[in-house]
Amino acid sequence: MRVNVHGEEFAGELDLIETVIRGGDEKAFGVRFYLASASELMPPQHQDDDRSAITFWQKIPLHADPKNYHERLLLTLKAAVQLIEKKQREQK
User: Fold this and answer.
1) Nearest by Cα to 18 from 8, 6, 30
2) How many CA atoms lie within 13 A of 69 on its CB side?
3) Contact criterion met (CB below 8 Å) for 18 and 26
4) What is the pLDDT of residues 7-16, one digit of tens each?
5) Does the global pTM surpass 0.85?
């Protein structure tokens, strides 16, 4: 699967999300990037946060040390930042 998000769609807001997965033997955490979306898509008094977003999830077995799993997602996101920084240096 490929998801394309254009830079102007990033709303500049991030959240760290945690949840227990069905069955209760795993949990997951993720980094959610909110996207700009039309205000008419969100009713003003709506309970749920229906804003458009992309979340990068990482599962963690319930009794495992989460540090190792946090590190995996962290390294992936750092690699993405490094790619962008490299491109910036090349264009100077």
Assistant:
1) 30
2) 18
3) no
4) 888 888 999 9
5) no
Q: Which two tokens stand for residue 10?
A: 């990033």
Residue 40 has pLDDT above 70, yes or no: no
How many whole angstroms separate alpha carbon 21 and alpha carbon 19? 6
Six token digits for residue 55:
């979340």
Asked whether 77 and 31 are in contact (CB, 8 A), the reply is yes
Label each residue of 20-81 as H, E or C. ECCCCCEEEEEEEEEECCCHHHCCCCCCCCCCCEEEEEEEEECCCCHHHHHHHHHHHHHHHH
Going 55 to 58 to 62 to 64, the CA torsion angle's sign is: negative
